[in-house]
Specification:
Layout (H helix, E strand, L loop, with lengths): L1 H10 L11 H34 L5 H22 L5
Helix pairs in contact: 1-2, 2-3
Length: 88
């Protein structure tokens, strides 16, 4: 996901159209202030979900644990894709 972000950032235009930021600067600002903290929070939530799942029951299936850990990240990516107008 991080590599895809940088590839998309590289494809954005760096030319300012008016007094505002260029599309590349806007995307970089969005990434620093929204995406980076969001990724950190979803990582922490995924780790907490794994630890709680292991503590409550004896789930030994890697598929179930992986799905539980990945669900916050998938929800976050869906939310960001809905917010960012260039991804629609």
């Amino acid at each position: 996901m991080i590599i895809a972000y940088f590839v998309l950032l590289d494809q954005q235009s760096g030319i300012r159209e008016s007094w505002g930021n260029s599309p590349q600067e806007g995307m970089l600002t969005f990434g620093v202030y929204v995406v980076a903290p969001g990724l950190l929070v979803t990582l922490l939530v995924g780790l907490i979900l794994i630890l709680r799942s292991l503590a409550r029951s004896r789930i030994s299936s890697a598929v179930v644990l992986g799905t539980v850990a990945a669900s916050p990240m998938l929800l976050f990516v869906a939310a960001v894709a809905g917010l960012w107008p260039g991804l629609r």
